[in-house]
Write a structure and sequence with these properties.
Layout: E1 6-12, H1 19-30, E2 35-41, H2 46-52, E3 63-65, H3 74-87, E4 91-95, H4 97-110, E5 114-119, H5 128-141, E6 144-147, H6 150-159, E7 165-167, H7 182-189, E8 196-201, H8 210-218, E9 224-229, H9 235-244, E10 251-255, H10 260-265, E11 269-272, H11 281-288, E12 293-296, E13 311-313, H12 318-327, H13 336-342, H14 345-359
Parallel strand pairs: 1-2, 1-4, 2-3, 4-5, 5-6, 6-7, 8-9, 8-11, 9-10, 11-12, 12-13
Helix pairs in contact: 3-4, 4-5, 8-12, 11-13
Domain Glycosyl transferase family: 182-329
Keywords: Transferase
Protein name: Glycosyl transferase
Length: 360
Amino acid sequence: MNKDMKTVVHVVQHLSPGGIESLALDFVSFSSRDHDVYIVSLQGTKEQALAKWPKLKAFAEQLVFLNKPDAFSLKTISDLCALFKELHVDVVHTHHIGPLLYAGLAAKQCGIKSKLHTEHDVWHLNSFKHRQLQRALLMWVQPMVVADAFKVEKRLDELFTHSKLTTIHNGIDTLRFVEGQKQASREALNLPKDKTIVGTAGRLESVKGHDLLIKAVNELPHHYLLAIAGDGSQHDKLKTLTASLGLNERVFFLGRLEDMPRFYQSLDLFCLPSRHEGFPLTAIEAQSCGTPTLVTDVGASAETLCPDSGLLVEANCSKKLAEAINAFKPSSTSPRAHVVKKHDIRDVVSRYQQLANIGA
């Protein structure tokens, strides 16, 4: 065993495409060479995860799946404790309340001093049960607590007395998400070259508000088209809505894309019409590709915007979305510089590593 190496374990609820999970993978990719980084998924199996998310194959040797049952499981705590001892873990980093419960207690039991917990959203703390559980866990586990947005930090500060609290905005690989040629990107995606294209990306679920954006397009002039990247349970329902509004020639369902930079590069405007959000990485990705971005005023979405080119719109209103899109005028300033300065994943990982050393 190399004593100069520090072993870090990130614990998530499940490994499926999402912002929290993508961030955990970035920790594997961008941590210092003297850090040996693993991701533990409480739920699911490796076979299931690899089948649903091919991107994980590159990280397969650093992924551990516990296949936890839905019900509370004391065995999961003991399994984690055994794993931590086997890997000689120095730092345990939990993401969300379930991992804090299981991995936080296991880390405490194993005597691991350096414990980090990132709070990615605070919706769940509207539940009295969750607030009481989190309060007890924070007092017992005593992790360094990181909010991924100022709005999240403010809410945590209102609810809990916890001195080890700071904000680190999530980041992306700004060397991957770069500016490109719009027309070449459209050609690669089979998108029209002579139209104004608004795009959105994310799971096709009600919370993401795709239906609102489709209805907004119906109120816009015909040269406006919509490109949707992603898949989910609402796919068929959204296709039906599109057909019912006579928009089959103006709305493009592209499915899940591997080359997301090319998607963002093809757009005139990126739009996130969510009903609820945490700190959305897609908004940062789009802006890193030089694409102006509009988000609805939910969660910490506003904190993702470039102050020169970003647009903030009232949530849950297709009419307001349509009005904002129609009135949009491109800024002479690219949002990329803002993202590079504020949200590069290398800086994010470095700040977390400094916190882990403080907590050790």
